[in-house]
Structure formats: C-alpha cells, structure tokens
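Predict the structure of Major facilitator superfamily (MFS) profile domain-containing protein.
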Amino acid sequence: PTPKDTDMEMEVPDAAMNSGGKKFALPVDSENKATEFRIYSAAAPHMRAFHLSWVSFFACFVSTFAAPPLMPIIRDNLNLTSTDIGNAGIAAVSGAVFARISMGTACDLFGPRLASAALILLTAPAVFCSAMANSAVSFLLVRFFTGFSLATFVSTQFWMSSMFSAPVVGTANGVAGGWGNLGGGATQLIMPLVFSLIRDIGVTKFTAWRIAFLIPALFQTLSAFSIFFLGQDLPDGNYSRLQKSGDKHKDNFKQVLYHAVTNYRGWILALTYGYSFGVELTVDNIIAQYFYDRFNVNLHTAGIIAASFGLANLFSRPGGGLLSDIVAKKFGMRGRLWTLWIVQTLGGLFCILLGKVGSLGVSVAVMLIFSVFVQAACGLTFGVVPFVSRRSLGVISGMTGGGGNVGAVLTQVIFFRGSSYSTETGITLMGVMMIFCTLPILFIFFPQWGGMFCGPSSKGITEEEYYMSEWNSTEKDKGFHKASLKFADNSRSERGKKVDSALTPSNETPPTHV
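Done. Here is the predicted structure for Major facilitator superfamily (MFS) profile domain-containing protein.
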C-alpha cells in the first residue's frame, strides 16, 4: 500500500474489523464497506462477492442469449417465422421485468446471496428444457423462463453496493455488471463453437444444437451452488445470522417499497436505463441475424461480429463506472449526472448512424463505437443508483434494472417484431428514442448535492437529513436508522471538490476523509 493508504488504515484501525474482531483484507469505512477495489484479489468477503456475482451473472447471460447465434439452424428445425423469432426475443427479456423488481425486494429482505442462488437454480431447468423445444410455442416458453435469470443483475448491483464504499461503488458496479454482460458476447462465440464440435463428431445439425444447450445449463447450475456455499451477504456476515444476533433488523416490506416508489429519481433512472441496457439487450437479440441477412456473411462470421458487441463490456461498462467515480471526486453527484447524460446521448447518435451505413466494414466500426457508449452509459447509471435511497436500495436497483428490460421489450415490439420496419430502420429509430429518453436526467435533483444545472438546496439540507427522511421517529428510537447514518457520513464525498464548504450537522463530527 502507498503511504497514504497506510495512514488511512492507521487513523481508523477499528473500521478494519468486523464485530468479531476479524480484520478485512481491504481497507474499509465505518460500514465495513471496502474503500478500495482490487480486481485481482479474491479476498473474502468483498472481492469474493465481486467474483461470484459477475461469474453467475455471466452464466445467466450465456443461457439467455444462447439461442440467437444458432437461430438460423433453430429456425429451420422448428419452422419459425420472423414473427415467431421476434416474439421469442421479446419473451427472453420480458420475463425479467417483474423478476428484477421482485429480486430487488428479495435482496432488501433476505440478502443477495440467497436471492440470487435461488433464482439461478429455479431458472436452470428452463435452459435444460431448451434442448426439447419442438414448436414455436415451446421455444418461446423456454426463452421466457430462462430470461428470468437476468434478474440476477439486480442482486449483483445490490451486492456490490453493500460491499463497496462511495468512492469506488461506481467502479465495482460497473465491472461486475460489465463482466457479467460479457456473457451476451461470449455466447455468440461459445454456442456456434460447441455446435460445430458436436456436429463434427457425426451428430446431425438439428440434434447438435439441442445438445449444445447442456453447456450453459450446467454452467448456470454450478454458479448457483458457488454463490450459496461461498458467498456472504454483507461485510459482517449473512442476513440470517445478523438478524438473529440483533445486529441487523428485519425491515418492513411496505416501508421499503413505499420509500422506493415515491422517490421520483428511481423512476427517471428506470426510464433512462431502459434505453441504455434495454438497447443493449435488443442488439444482443438482433445483431447476429442482422449481419447474416443484410451483408450475407456466414453464421460463424455473423457470430464473431455480434460477439464483438457484447465483448466490449470487458472494458466499456466498467469504464463507465470508473468514469463516474473519477468525475465524482472533483464534481460530486452533479458530475455523475452530467457524464451519464453526455455519454448516453452520444450512444444514441451512433445508434442512428449504425442504421444508416450500408457498408459491412463501416457498420462493424460504427457498431463497436456505439457499443462502447451504450455500455458505458449502463455503468454510469449504476454510479448514481446507490445514492438514491439507502433503505430501499434493492427495490430502486430492481426498478432501474427492470426498466432496462421494459425498454428492450418495447423496442423489440415496436421496431423488430414482424415486418413493420426493416432492421436497419428499426436501429435508427431506436437511436432517436435513446436520445429523447435520456433527457429526463436533467430533472434529477438531490437537495444535498444539486442537479445538472443547479447546486444544493438553499435550505441547507444535509446527507443525514436526506437519508433519515426514510425512517419515522419510532424506528429511529429503536435504532433502525444507524446504518443509514453511517452511509450518509460516507456519502459526503458526493459533494465534490467544494466539500469543505458543505454543511455538517452540529451534532456530528466531520469525518476524517472530508
């Protein structure tokens, strides 16, 4: 560690221990959330949770989008029409709409470990059953139920927000979400390769694609058991143990839900995320077939091109999360909001351009640039989400994540279902919708930090007052609000470079990191 790191750890030695006196491998804040993000570490509990979350989300992405790269074969085997294919694509992302909202609530009440492991195990049978699909209806159903697994994105973001402190939470969320999303690109390579290997040993192509689905099904099942046996909900332990010991109270579902649905910031982020992640999901569903049909490339080449879109998540979404944290150090929450709006708007412009160009080489180049911006916008969104609500973090995450799936469903229904629009026209119009649906970010305002065009409220509202408003006097008397107080203290970094001029309550001691 650097001298600065050493000094920080010396100043707050108690914060590096949990209630049992066990030291953490990473420096932590007063909530025992890690203040550093060490990507090459697998230390428990912080970095182990990170690796378990992104790998499991990756597995779910591979399963959900295992069908599109093999669609030309599946289409011929099951006699699917373009409408059947469009409906199946919509089904794959529509199931996760309510699953994501439910997952957020489950994370708030039972913890991300149990919630994600249970969902992954419950949806794995649908992946196995994909091998038995024999009609348009059965194919649609298995894609629908497999798509529920994408709700693990919510548990991934909730888990990272529970493990990492404000200065690095955008990075942690971005890398976990981005590397998980890599599954959408990896499956474009994995499934054609597995299919080819099976076919080359003498299996007919209409049987080979069915056997190939066993690989993502087994991968997904294994990831669920890994989370259950190796994961931990919070830095200090699992929800069940902490609730039994009295270190964490079991929250009231109605109150958690109320404070989420009445916070307008969550709804705006759900809308904008619908046209960043929602667009990404749509492209995952259509891009291989688009290049196969429009530019007459073979299945393998179309798969490689489509994979390059999803594989950009290796750096693009993490880059968005990292950028969010970097600008926040100087400009605070206002910087996070400005950067999100700029990046997502640019993504919309490149999406419009992608639908306009008619050359294979130029289309691939524009697609790659577009992928970087749209995926970075996803990472930037979840640089803001953790600060909307402390008490209802899971539901807010679920609302935002669900918004991504709603955007994907609406976009595919309007532009890519049937033959109302050509695929290239649909892509262009999708870019126009991206730009317009990003504009509401202009209206997000945090009274303690400000918004894009104005500073903090003149009433002098502090972080403590903002997050304490989610608790009533009875709950405060019982001490239920203490975790929110710690979070408020640690979120003062969102004031940006003018932090020294920000107010601190008279009964609070200014934290040493300010």
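Residues 316-356 form the longest helix (41 residues).
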